[in-house]
Amino acid sequence: MLLFWILASLAILVALLLLVPPLMRGGAGLDVSGDANVALYRERLAELDLERDRGEVEADRYTVLREDLERGLLADAGKRDAAHAVARPPACGMAVAVAVVVPVCSLAFYLWLGSPHGLDMRPPPRDAAAGAGPAPPVEAMVASLAAKLAGDPDDADGWLLLARSQVALERFDDALVGFERAHALLGDEPALLTDWAEAEAGSAGNRFPASVLDRLDRALELDPDHEKALWLGGFAAAQNGRTGTAVARWERLLAHQPPGSREESVVTELLARVRSAGDTTPAARSGAAGPTEPGGARIVVEVSLAPDLAIELDAGEPVFVFARPPSGAGPPVAVARTVVGALPATIALDESNAMIPSRSLASVERVLVAARVARSGTANRTSGDVEGVAGPVAVADTAPVGVVISRIVP
Fold this sequence. Notes:
Blueprint: H1 2-24, H2 33-54, H3 59-113, H4 126-130, H5 138-151, H6 156-168, H7 172-186, H8 190-203, H9 210-222, H10 227-239, H11 243-254, H12 262-280, H13 282-285, E1 298-305, E2 318-324, E3 334-339, E4 345-350, E5 366-373, E6 386-394, E7 401-405, E8 407-408
Parallel strand pairs: 1-7
Antiparallel strand pairs: 1-4, 2-3, 2-5, 5-6, 6-8
Helix pairs in contact: 1-3, 2-3, 5-6, 6-7, 6-8, 7-8, 8-9, 9-10, 10-11, 11-12
């Protein structure tokens, strides 16, 4: 825009330089009629002299005619000088008027007929480009969708969208209701069954009960290559003592990953760990789920209760320990569960605590680490829960992270 105004100012200056100087000079140099009259007088005088020499005009007559010519010339010269004297002041005024009026009128006409905003090459604000104000919060959109479904309970896609949105907000118990309604309308679909199992595991603190295992088994019957079902199905099988099934599912999942990708390395690491656990732990050899050796991305969390906590907690109340990106968007990248009676406790969060492959500890560099006593018994954050937060901390940092549970959720 600055360049435009510079060029416009130069154009106005050039126009003024062409108009103002001649006006400042007034009539000087512009009146050619005066010079023509002088030439005519000289020509007439030369003719008069020629007539005298020929004897066509007597001497007395010649003198009278010459005096008449001289008087006429003097009179004409006086008129021109008077005209110049009268015309000069208006010419100066006109020059000043032009110097002021031309720029003012030019700017006024541009602002009236032009488009000054078109000169701004910066992109418009995001909200202006979208033609709307700021986007409403996710919670408001979810509430609006829930209200819509109350009047249209047969909208299967709406129930599915609502349930998945509530999973993203960690409202797992509410999500289970939505998945149940969607399943009643749509029946067994691999994606629906897998997302439903994810919500059930989230509600149970990232644990996979038998009902979840059955749902994932059914999803893989319908689509043996469903990647999310293979991923969650491996965890569910390992937690329920089916190590061979976990290995088979993750091997099938590994075959679908691009060579050299992060997903390939994560699945390879999980396979190595579950095979090692199956070969070396008595629990795994007897068919029970055994612990896996730590490896890959890992955070050690030391969880404790504040000594001056204002409320009394029951020993059996669940405690959820989780890590999530500092932005807070989406579900946690790792979740573990313990109980109040086990505190203080040291808990390791690693890639096996992830819920989906793309959101494991290996997919982020820094996380917030939190622990929450879920007094309602579910993983949903509700009023009256007690929590503590630490970080952000680097995933690569091997030092333990201390989290003190001290704040009551309002």
